[in-house]
Amino acid sequence: MTTERVIIPRRAFLLGLNLAIGGLAVGLSAAAQKPTNEPGKPPGPKPDVASQSVESNAPGLNPNVFVHVGPDGAVTIVCHRSEMGQGIRSSLPVLIADELGAAMARVTIRQADGDKAYGDQNTDGSNSIRGIYEDMRLVGATARTMLIAAAAQQWKVPPEQCIAKDHVVTHVPTRRSLGFGDLALAAGKLKVPDKKQVVLRPRAELSNVGKALPLLDAPAYVTGQAVFGADVRIPGMLTAVIVRPPVVGGRHVRFDAKRALAVPGVRHVLEMPPPKPPWKFQPWGGIAVVADHTWAAMRGQAVLEVEWDHGPNASYDSERYRGELAASVAKPGSIARQVGDPERALKEAARIVEAEYHVPHLPHLSMEPPVAVARWEGDTCEVWAATQNPQAARTEVARVLGISEKNVRVHVTFLGGAFGRKSKADFCSEAALLSRELRAPVRVQFTRTDDVRHDYVNTVSTNRLTAGIDATGRVTAWRHRTAFPSIASLFGESARPALDDLQQGVLDLAFAVPNLSAEICDATAHTRIGWLRSVYNIFQAFSIGSFVDELAVAKGADARDVWLELIGPPRKMSLADLGVAELKNYGQPLDQHPVDAGRLRNVLERVTDRARWQERKREGRTLGLAAHRSFLSYAAAVVSVAKGPGGKIAVDEVWLSIDAGTVVNLDRVRSQMEGAIIFGMSLALFGGITMKEGAVEQSNFRGGGRIVRIGEVPRRIHIDIVESDAAPGGVGEPGVPPVAPAIANAVFALTGKRVRELPLSKAFPEL
Amino acid sequence: MTITLRINGTEHRLDVDPEMPLLWVLRDVLNLTGTKYGCGEALCGACSVHLNGQVIRSCVTPVRRADGATVVTIEGLSPDGSHPLQKAWVELGVPQCGFCQAGQLMTAAALLKKYPRPTDEQIDQSMAGNLCRCGTYPRIRAAIKKAAGELP
Fold this sequence. Notes:
Chain A is of the alpha+beta class and 767 residues long.
């Protein structure tokens, strides 16, 4: 294992020291340099600095790392997934509490540190509920089984005659009862039962699951008390703002720290270790400006003079690259999926419809730019971070410091949005490296423009879709060629899309077209590619959803009818039906989560029924429709657009139906769908990161970094959540994919202009 | 230069650079971290606070402009989270990630002072500078109306 060290050029370091001495006079007031634990706020983040990763030695029942019942009846439930707006802290603990039979009013939620003891903590891929629904129930059910066993022993009755409900165990025949607190010590002495001996409650007994549950953290959010990454305060903490290489793969040649060090409050200017390919989650290199406070660090960053060697990606140019992708999909690729003989069917077709779609790189733009605090002490490092993946952060921090993971603790704060960006640990490692070098707690703060320019952007793509229509108007052939640099390139693998990448909306496209294929075409990567809410599904759904609409226009048919024709009858599709050898299926088995054409049809029918699709169209409303399966859930959207004052195109009403299988917290699913519509609007209308001479062209919330404002959101949004007992699917992401194609299709209905490239503001600058 | 600020009812005399934006005085000097940094250029509204009753973007407001003034931040919107907007926000489950919500609430509070029963247009115009990436806008609208007594 190699150790990456921050290099301190002697000159800069000495200057820093000199300035630090002078800084006392010109910097902050003495009051500000005291430990910053005023007014009324404890130092450190409220999401539980003191928590042990594996539950404490507190007396009571403590059957696993997730739940503790104290002798006073207080129940502590650990939420091991990161809260980033999806409401997981108001959902996962409820699932455990329901199995336990606990009253939510007696439950305290504690945020877990990063620790393998919790299993996977990566809060990504819409995976929390769908991935561990059964596991979390088992956690609660195990504790319940032990409380009941303790009561049954005391009463000398069979445990089967006892129930646990509302924080009380009751012996049903005699109505004797004992509170959870009365039983906690005795239950804690029992052997933890094997999971085979633990019986989950029938679904109907889960008293909260499936209801619109309160947002438990709402009071903290609305009073400013919720502690986000940037709100962590450690005595003696310095703040670092970093000038990173503008081009991925570039590095600094020389820099002049003089002007930065002249900024009052700036203490140090330090070189960061340049990363080596593959980039993975490494810090980005560059020069750090470390100061007493954020403003000084930001001012120092602005005036730091750095000369760069931009490296091998210095010619990356989004306009030119677009041509490369177009050339790639003009040629046949390798077959990823095939049913029938699409080439022959295309030759025999009476008509061919063909279209090419392009979606640019997309930014994350969480409202909180990336931020982490690290404190190096002795040979250990403690990190507080807005991270989606505290275990990856722990591994990465240990790696860059060259120490054991045992000597790294990662505490998870509230995340001010994340959308995939904060699953990368780069900012945590930056803080750790600086803290060790300076022997002081250091907070690394991204500016908004840093966030835009040093993002792991969603990939850029071109899709070419070709369909054959026979003499009767039936679609007999469907060919989908796709080219985009894969996220695998971040890890040093080929940038050419991998087969598994196509599970996102291509291999699992539940169509009944008799001759159907998907082809993987070449692509190269010239920047860091990462995951963004719904990932590849964004452009696959945009391409497929737009193309279905184009087929409807070509056939002179209604888009809803064409969707239903293409999907065909309700059926669960086998691998052979799909024309694939295997399907990753978001990590879940096909028998639990089949590719279900019936469910895709159902959301399409429900959303068009609710929107009164035909009637509204007859009334002159210009509507667009799209449907998409992603993260094992099915979503369909109808969007209405209209010309507002000054001819500006506005989305004026949206209907969305979602089948996410079993739902835990109905109101958070609803809020995720509302958010997905608006997220989808932002990327459809405005979003787009472009590169020129290898560097991001956008800055701050401008241009392609623009997001939807309140006045642009339709006043009428209708969310329909399918009631289902099916295994839970994803929620955070599946609402996003159908939105952009539904908007583009509605815009076509309104203007007659078919836009095959996002964002739509390129074709309609007045947007 | 000594700056005198009355923040959430408490007077502070601070020896700070008069050009330091009020945002950083609040966050880094006074440790009032409820007010958020989102963009630094008055583009997102996460840093919204009240200066003498007017909503301002603290990230671009030098603290000298607040000298002698009264500042209210999210920590001072109410003593206990009981402002009608805060109550409506909780009841309707407005926040998602929560990060922009302090700014949203401060802007909404100023809006309600000016228009106790705001129209949709007044809400959209007044709240236009407050971005939310999670997309809580529909509930923000509803919660403002609820706090204004227009919704049950």
